[in-house]
Amino acid sequence: MGFEVLAVTSEAYPLIKTGGLADAAGALPAALAQEGVAVRTLLPGYRTVMGALPKPRVLLDLPRHFGGAARLLQAHQGGLDLLVLDAPHLFDRPGGPYVAPGGGDWGDNAIRFAAFASAASIAAQHLGVAAVHAHDWQAGLVPAYLRFAPKRIPCLFTIHNMAFQGKFPASVFPALGLPPEAFAREGLEYYGAVGFLKAGLWFADAINTVSPSYAEEILTPEGGMGLDGLLRGRAGDLHGILNGLDVVDWNPETDRHLAARFSAADPAPRAANKAAVQNAFGLAPDPAVPLFAFIGRLAWQKGADLLLEAARVLMDGGAQFALIGSGDAALEQACNAFAAAHPGRAGVFIGFDEGRARQVYGGADAMVVPSRFEPCGLVQLSALRYGAPPVVARTGGLADTIIDANPMALAAGCATGVQVAPGRADSLAAGLRRALALFRDAPTWRAIQARGMATDVSWGPSAKRYAALLKGIAARHG
Q1: pLDDT tens digits along 335-349
Q2: Does residue 464 have a known ligand-binding role?
């Protein structure tokens, strides 16, 4: 049967996605299979997930599960070997996975994801897996339920973003079905409340986050966001493993979203994609003008406000700018105002559309990723893959994946983009000026572009580390 793992995640592409967690959880199982690790992925039975399941089979009935009848279903879809918690009283509702249609989190999120974590423990016991891999706060109680379960199964807990912690009032604790001793400083208790992320960090056998630099940053008060002390105490169990891309799906040679497909060996067709982006965003059709782009959440973390402040450098430098994103209403308004003030030079799409985003990756000359902090980031990896050298803030996974085009790196022939100091509009503006100057040195820019496209951004190297980590915790508790 091999080495079997149950992955527990609230999102997995292509079934349900709100961010990078879904991309990682959706792509990692196939990469782990190459390392002799067979992964089943447990998802909540959201309405969209249930609608996508082809003829699911019942694994277990859970007649009284957190306020209603539920079932654990088995299915294969989207390249994943799936388990799904079919609990209509918790997940069969409109809106997103976490947020109600009118805005604001679902009021029963604590119960919904406690039920999900409890079901994961039940499934792991039933299947007899060698280890469990739990992702982010929504699966933060999984290590707790496993710790108090009849059979000891080790658990790896992956942090995708410390900013989202799943903190709920202490009054929810009695409904969780955990023993009283679990609500303690050495457990779920978090400044008088219940902390789902904190529970994962405390009870897991090993912890990792999604880049080496972010693993260091979360040991500081600023990066640890209230949990740095706990993490410093567990520093020996903390690992930083870079995210990757599904390079079969993210492939400019086969991507059906592109106006023209291209490769590192023949990047010339990118010009047709650039023309398509200019047309879609109302930009002047000019193949020679440098086109910079941003794709992401319009939020403080992502530095969209810094970009709007620094983007005047692009306008002054004769460049164009395209943006895809949504989020903070004030930032959305500011982005629209910027585009209105620069007709034919700046274009904005509020929202997200996969095809439009792929077209931008394939047509922009450079991507800008100005995050104040970034656990790993996928935009810069996609940018490398699609030949759009990125301008990134020197933080987290951005610092780990992009080699700055400073004089020494250019001389050594290893630069893949531009790095700037995080959280500073003046540093971002200086980086954009540098990128514009590099772009106008055509041979240098083509070399940077080619080097980025040749970079291995796949899950292969990271899957080896995940497999070793999962097998290691299983051996310790075997």
Answers
A1: 999 999 999 999 999
A2: no
